[in-house]
Design a protein that fits this description.
Among the domains are: 22-236, P-loop containing nucleotide triphosphate hydrolases (Rossmann fold), CATH 3.40.50.300; 241-327; 333-361 and 375-440, Arc Repressor Mutant, subunit A, CATH 1.10.10. Helix content is 66%, strand content 5%. The strands form three sheets. A five-stranded parallel beta sheet has the order 2-3-4-1-5, with helices on both faces. Strands 8-10-9 form a three-stranded antiparallel beta sheet. It has a two-stranded antiparallel sheet with strand order 6-7. Mean pLDDT is 86; it is low at 1-7, 9-13 and 877-881.
Length: 884
């Protein structure tokens, strides 16, 4: 039996005054006043654990409720604490917004969401909104035409979901200002933080966003305080000064019946101005007998102080000492239960304890409904631990029929877990997994599937754990949480070894897909390569075709065009042998694009028209629009601008009809590049401007950087280098923030050209030199060759002497070699043209007959290529400026 405790639960209700935070509270008040004026404001509170971030927010919100106001603000809170799912931060906030409780019938929850969304949006696009909100809440809704259109494009779907979510928040704020609280952000998944960053950047209207986290948040995202720019204020909470700390401790000890000065001094010396540590000291004083409840049944708490025990009591010198002191106050039965809880995780359930208590017991001869003595004892101990502030009981439970708890202090959970032997941990994990597997909805929820997998793995059941990790990965991928999905696949696949071939094939494909989305090209190649090996061993030609196709796309992406061609041809043959018409049409389109990148326009047109014909037979409008767009790219580079405009215009019309916003942006951008080629610079800027506005609406920062680069190039081509530099520098900053090396290199290449037009050759050379290094690092040969050509031009224009003349010639020669190696005749001809001009005009080669002969040969070959392909010799930035 546990020893009887005096009722110190009242310490939890002794509310200390909020001291030392008046300036910070005033900052929140000012921000809310600006929000009431229709503006968006963001405040981030940073500080160590226990410093008072959540308390400050709570006090601020309570003050607003007490004051009232018209209209009253609506407050919704999300926390990343004890959340394992990729979008759990937003799920909690949305559950609060829609009044959902754990265990609620899914159909009832969906009806409630749909009804409330309809009221906010007046029935406009409700189907789209609830579908995407449902993904954040892990509640599946029926698909709409828009969601069907983007179903197979995770990146596009994620962009649209962000835009839909943002638009809903803005519409919701029209009836009354919103306060959105995001707490414990240091624990948030990367997918949640990426979505939050987007909202901070682009939200509009009367919304106050309060973010709180430890300093680790800034270590993960060094530019966090710059997100949202001037409307974002970062406040670092520091320790209370001595006077305020003493006042807080005196308030916490106010139930004491005698002098508490020695207790205050001792507590303040330990806590160092941390309010939570001061609260911790009150509990420690009780546990070591320095303070004692006078009458547990009294309406007001009264504590007796035993100062004589203070000198002999072992008080903590560090936080670790404080934790140890708290754990030493537990009796064996309490310690056993908390050991079980620590293995269950940061969140645990009463029902799980029953399974752990009975793990080694035999069933009674006749199991009756009244055999619940152990359940009653577990509930009694849990209640006592809640009262003494070791754990918190949550208002709702994930699993129906049981109560959910969390540890009040994570350091205590970690300390208890470290004291459990390895053998005992394995037994506990297995029992917990057995219990969890029989709870409803575990296999349909990413967070709980991953939790179950971790228990199976720690319990020594690797194969079962691997299968469940893969399920969690697929659930995360379906919600477009690519970072989290990759982590689950990474954990699950090695656990399967040579088993579960069908599941491994699917997982390897999906793993390769999210790796490509996350920019991990080498790892993606390895995943698709392993998929190919498995497919070959089992003679699964369709799967083999899919693997070869994805490998081909990866090689095309990094500029290894010959390797890509081999894989595409192999994929085509495998798809044809199995009668997979979608696979055939898609691969033919891929081959056509590859010919385009190599400058083989006649072959490209043949393949793309065939791919378009097959897709038209299949009736897939999204794929038809994609083929028309690709066809337009080839026609454009072939110099057939009229036909290119027809193809792009038809593609744009389909994409508008099916609600393919990203596709609309892509085609508008491509129409802008046609206008560039026709020297219709005003028209180009108009089209790029429309694309830029749409991009900002959906928050696709990668495409925004590309469009800014195109705007910059249009400006310097039209003789406006100063304006060009402004746009290109914005693109540079954006790509740098995003870690987009290819986009950054394109922006730097454009800056190099603009600075050269200004006559600032030093800056021009610096920009293009950095671009060359970046193109080399991402292994994009076509871009590298183009950048080396520009570097040759800038170096030659410098007139810096013989050494630089030699360098310019080397850059041109390297550019020629790259395009010869990749078979890209278009860019090869463009390099020949500027290289020949350099050899003819450079004074150093005026009397060099060999150089002049080489120049004539290159000019002749360039003219032949231009005439054969019917294209312009104008130097454009290459494939990255056009989009699919």
């Amino acid at each position: 039996m546990a020893m009887q405790r005096s009722g110190m639960g009242s310490t939890l209700h002794t509310r200390a005054p909020l001291l030392g935070r008046m300036d910070e509270l005033e900052s929140l008040e000012v921000a809310l006043q600006e929000v009431r004026g229709g503006q968006t404001r963001i405040v981030t509170l940073l500080g160590p654990a226990g410093i008072g971030k959540s308390r400050l927010i709570q006090e601020f919100i309570l003050r607003q409720r007490e004051r009232g106001g018209s209209p009253p603000v609506k407050v919704f809170r999300g926390s990343a604490r004890d959340i394992a799912t990729s979008y759990g931060l937003f799920a909690r906030l949305l559950r609060a917004r829609f009044g959902l409780v754990e265990g609620m019938d899914p159909d009832q929850a969906k009806a409630q969401i749909r009804n409330q969304v309809s009221k906010v949006l007046d029935d406009r696009k409700v189907g789209d909104v609830v579908y995407f909100l449902g993904q954040l809440l892990d509640l599946p809704f029926a698909e709409s035409p828009l969601t069907k259109a983007v179903k197979d494009d995770p990146q596009q779907a994620e962009l649209i979901r962000r835009a839909v979510f943002k638009a809903f928040i803005e519409a919701d704020a029209q009836s009354a200002p919103l306060v959105l609280v995001f707490d414990d952000l240091q624990h948030a998944h990367d997918d949640s933080l990426l979505l939050l960053r987007y909202l901070l950047e682009y939200l509009a209207g009367p919304v106050l966003v309060l973010c709180a986290g430890r300093n680790e948040l800034i270590h993960r995202y060094e530019d966090w305080d710059r997100v949202g720019e001037d409307r974002h204020e970062l406040i670092e909470l520091v320790a209370l000064d001595d006077a305020d700390a003493a006042a807080v401790m005196e308030a916490l000890l106010s139930p004491c019946t005698s002098d508490v000065t020695p207790l205050v001094e001792s507590a303040c010396a330990f806590a160092g101005g941390n309010p939570q540590m001061l609260e911790q000291m009150v509990r420690i004083y009780h546990d070591v007998g320095v303070i004692e409840e006078v009458d547990p049944l009294a309406s007001e708490p009264r504590w007796r102080v035993h100062l004589d025990r203070l000198a002999s009591a072992t008080l903590p010198m560090t936080i670790e000492d404080a934790v140890s002191a708290r754990l030493a106050a537990l009796d064996p039965e309490e310690r056993r239960l908390l050991e079980y809880a620590s293995i269950m995780g940061s969140v645990f359930w009463r029902g799980g304890f029953v399974a752990l208590y009975r793990a080694d017991e035999e069933a009674p001869e006749f199991w009756t409904a009244g055999d619940d003595d152990d359940k009653e004892r577990i509930e009694e101990i849990l209640g006592d631990l809640v009262e003494r502030d070791y754990i918190l009981e949550l208002p709702d439970s994930t699993f129906p029929g049981t109560t959910e708890y969390i540890f009040k202090h994570n350091k205590e959970r970690v300390a208890i877990e470290h004291r459990v032997s390895a053998a005992a941990k394995q037994r506990y994990h297995k029992s917990i997994a057995d219990w969890m597997e029989h709870q409803g909805g575990v296999f349909d929820n990413e967070e709980y599937a991953a939790m179950l997998a971790s228990h199976r793995e720690a319990g020594g059941e690797s194969y079962a754990a691997g299968l469940i990790y893969l399920r969690a990965g697929n659930l995360a991928r379906a919600r477009y949480a690519s970072v989290t999905a990759g982590e689950y696949f990474e954990r699950g696949l090695p656990l399967l070894e040579e088993g579960a071939v069908a599941q491994r094939l699917e997982a390897l494909h999906n793993y390769g897909d999210v790796l490509q989305q996350n920019g991990r090209i080498d790892d993606a190649l390895a995943a698709f390569g392993e998929m190919l090996t498995l497919a070959y061993r089992l003679d699964l030609r369709g799967k083999g075709g899919a693997a070869h196709n994805r490998i081909g796309r990866l090689y095309r992406e990094i500029g290894n065009l010959d390797e890509a061609a081999t894989h595409f041809q192999t994929a085509l043959a495998l798809f044809e042998s199995t009668g997979d018409q979608r696979g055939v049409a898609s691969t033919i389109d891929d081959i056509g694009k590859l010919h385009w990148m190599k400058g083989e326009y006649d072959l490209a047109l043949t393949e793309l028209r065939e791919g378009l014909r097959r897709r038209q037979e299949l009736g897939d409008r999204r794929s038809i629009a994609l083929s028309l767009n690709n066809l337009g790219l080839v026609l454009q580079d072939s110099g057939d601008f009229s036909a290119a405009l027809d193809a792009f215009t038809e593609s744009l019309a389909i994409r508008r009809q099916i609600g393919d916003q990203v596709g609309v942006i892509v085609t508008l951008n491509n129409l802008g590049t046609v206008a560039q080629d026709l020297n219709e610079y005003d028209k180009a800027l108009e089209l790029f401007g429309e694309a830029r506005d749409l991009v900002r609406e959906i928050g696709d920062r990668n495409r925004l950087s590309l469009i800014l680069t195109n705007i910059g190039e249009t400006l310097y081509s039209s003789g406006q280098p100063n304006k060009a530099i402004e746009e290109l520098r914005r693109a540079e900053e954006l790509c740098d923030e995003l870690g987009d090396k290819l986009g950054l290199a394109e922006a730097l290449r454009g800056l190099g050209k603009a600075y050269m037009l200004q006559g600032d050759l030093v800056r021009a050379r610096d920009c293009i030199g950095r671009a060359v290094d970046l193109f080399a690092s991402v292994r994009s040969k076509v871009h590298l060759g183009s950048a080396l050509r520009t570097l040759g031009e800038i170096t030659a224009a410098g007139g810096w002497g013989a050494a630089h003349t030699k360098s310019a010639r080397e850059y041109y020669a390297r550019s020629v070699a790259i395009f010869e190696q990749t078979g890209n005749e278009v860019e090869l001809a463009r390099t020949y043209k500027v290289y020949a001009r350099f050899l003819r005009t450079e004074p150093e080669y005026a009397d060099d007959d060999a150089a002049r002969e080489e120049a004539d040969q290159m000019q002749t070959r360039a003219d032949e290529i231009f005439q054969r392909l019917r294209i312009s010799a104008a130097d454009r930035s290459g494939p990255a400026t056009a989009q699919r």
